[in-house]
Amino acid sequence: MWMKRLKNKRVKNLLWINLMLASPFIGAFNDSSRFTVMPDKVTNNAVTQVSINGEHYLLSFSGLGENKTYQAVHNKAYAYNIKNNKWQRISPVPLSRNNLALTNNLVGRLASVATAIKDTAYIFGGYTVAKDHTEVSVADVYSYNVRTDNYTLLAPMPVPVDDSVALTYQQKYIYLVSGWHNSGNVNLVQLYNSKTNQWQQATPYPGKPVFGHAGGIVNNKMLICDGVAIQVHENTRRNYQDEAACYLGTIDEKQPSKIDWRVIKHPTNRARYRMAATGIEDKQQIVFVGGSENPYNYNGIGYNGKPSQPSNEVWFYDFPQQIWQIKSSETATMDHRGLLLIKDQLLTLGGMTANQKVLNTVNTYPLINEK
Prior knowledge:
This protein has one helix at about 100-105, and strands at about 20, 45-50, 55-65, 75-80, 85-90, 115, 120-125, 125-130, 135, 140-145, 150-155, 165-170, 175, 180, 185, 190-195, 200, 215-220, 220-225, 230, 240, 245-250, 260-265, 275-280, 285-290, 310-320, 325-335, 340, 345-350, 350-355, 355-360, 360-365. The protein is an all-beta fold.
């Protein structure tokens, strides 16, 4: 993934929606002062949240430190108790013995994804980075228990992926949508059953296979947007193209492996790379935050050789009305692996801002104003 180059592409519209451009700011964005800063600066970290006996915890797993070199790729992990407003270092993310990377003393990884079911966090894959920039996708899947600070190795992914999207359904199933595997993207939707610790394949992703995309789920509807696809040529080496595309997948409630995919009109026709996204069930919305229009290597430098700049756009897709609304935040960020929701605020943990600066802040984004 070292020499990826990209350009924009349009997507045909199959559903009628309305694009609404609103006021430049949503209330008082990025009031991060109420949250204690993270113990370390980190980006490209897998994040999720769990609730235990009414207490909420934010979790960050693995990622990249502020030096942004292969040596800054780590397996550090952190937990934040919202009630106590306190971060603490927790046990680092393990790497199972069947990984070649372990024999090469590579324990940290990038582009993992995390999600949660009730009080248990789940961490999937990612990739290791060697000194010669060799990147290897990791098959490992772990659950994490906040109470015991303990990881449990689970059944590995059938096809190891990184830079994927993980979505939870019915507090039982986890979908891994597309992503990168060693030397190329896959169109697979890999379905994990947390009750049986087993995998199966769901209806494949209908668009071009991508990495660095983002998505959320509300009830049985998932929305996936953007990412980077491979472009193959006749007489020259392949290159890589950002993909401005959104797909709505409706899960069959009786057969979770069956997904009815449809195209959704893109909100801007300008693709974003490594946005943060989540679903908001009570509002029936999927929200996308930040990202960059210029996809980049892990150091924040675009595959075109230009420093990537973060976006301050926030996209809201409303299911009942089938419309997009676009707002702006005060702080532009990128390089996220997930978006969290606590009460009336959306959160990103760490990430990058302008000039490839790695953050240690909890950045906050209020929900869209009620009409």
